[in-house]
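Slide 14.
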Amino acid sequence: MDYQELLRKRKIYLSGRTSIPELTLQSFEQAFEIEYTHNSTAIEGNTLTLMETKVLLEDGISIGGKRLREIYELVNHQNAYRYVKDCIAREQKLDEAVVKDIHALLMKNIFVGGIYRNVDVYISGAQHTPPSPLEMYRQIKIFYGDLAWKGRELNAIELAAWSHAEFVRIHPFPDGNGRTSRLIMNYQLMENGFPAVSIAKENRLAYFNTLEAYAVEGDLSPFAEMIAELVDQQLDRYLGMLEQSQAQEMKQEL
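Slide 15: predicted structure.
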């Protein structure tokens, strides 16, 4: 994916975003929030469908026959995503405190979040084994230090991909690392003027394979390319709305 082309589209997106009718933009972003919450939790095994997620989060109707934990996962993810957007609006830099807050929101009513693990963990089906607690503490501190300067050697898409891949490789929390890392990635994208993206649950295998390539071989490029393509698709959706809005304005003027 050509990064310069993404920058060109980003420029149009940032300058034209306010020209999209408010109702159109609001409904699109609300639909994205539901889709993103559904995908990010479904990747981790949540069984609620997209429609059930919509009914729960938009209409406030509880879903019968589902475990309480699954309900909390969806509500918590929506709140954590909104917290991320609020942080960006306040120009809050991504740091350890913010990451711990994100995790605490994701785990609300499930277990006390924002606390690093003190036991070994294993990822089923993966070649990579996350570091033991003492080594994990050392690596997570390096991770936060690296956040400050990685942007000098990586472009914004690579930085977002690296933040996700490196965080999930370290696996600092007992649970919820995947959801946290996807929110961290979108934090980096939005902070740099790109729209947030959602990794479809149907692409779970390819997604895990690209993360494994980074964790085992140190190769970030497959995952960065996947994220670049998702950003491109999301930018195209916004630009499509912008074109439609401009076309309607021209019709009204004629």
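Speaker note: Residues 178 and 203 are 14 Å apart (CA to CA).
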